[in-house]
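HUMAN: Spend a minute on the protein record below and explain its fold to me.
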Amino acid sequence: MNRTTLLDLLIATGNVGKVAEIRAALGDLPIKLRTLSDFPGIETPKESGSTYEANAVIKAMAYAQQTGLWALADDSGFEVQALGGAPGVFSARYAGAGVSGGDRIAFLLRQLDQVNSSERGARFVCVAALADSTSAIVRVEQGICVGTLIEEPRGKNGFGYDPIFVPEGFDQTFAELPQDIKNVISHRARALQAMRSFLEQVVGQLVAASDEAG
């Protein structure tokens, strides 16, 4: 282990959009970011939890156990005020398994046909969990971004429900905003910034241990 790479950290998601956001948040730390593509044949754990935290923990622990690396996983969801917080933890499966992102958005919007603009409050929630190389959970962080759900998708960037969500204080959707802005204000960005602070402490401890050993 050297000062350039002090820790191997697995980005425990197959979502390329999430991978990009995590690299943007953590890429300048003295750690080596690994992805699931580095581990052909790795088994995907079943997200059977009833909360974001439970699912994030399931994934972080499972991938750390399989690889022997520290693993960072997250679970996130879109919560609509008029739907009582749905789709929530079922956001990725709200319209059924295997449907496209566009179909998922269309399905959600159909549930809101009779809802006026004053009742279209929504928020994104992200919970990130970090497991160490023994698969023990050492940190959990949460990020929330509040805004409004619009009536028609706008923008080509982002993924998931980004094209129909306008964050508070902005007039563009997540799918229209420049990535550098989204990487500061999004729910995932906020969870990752908190996680980054913890990882900086871990790296500092590794540096101290290396200096003592050297």
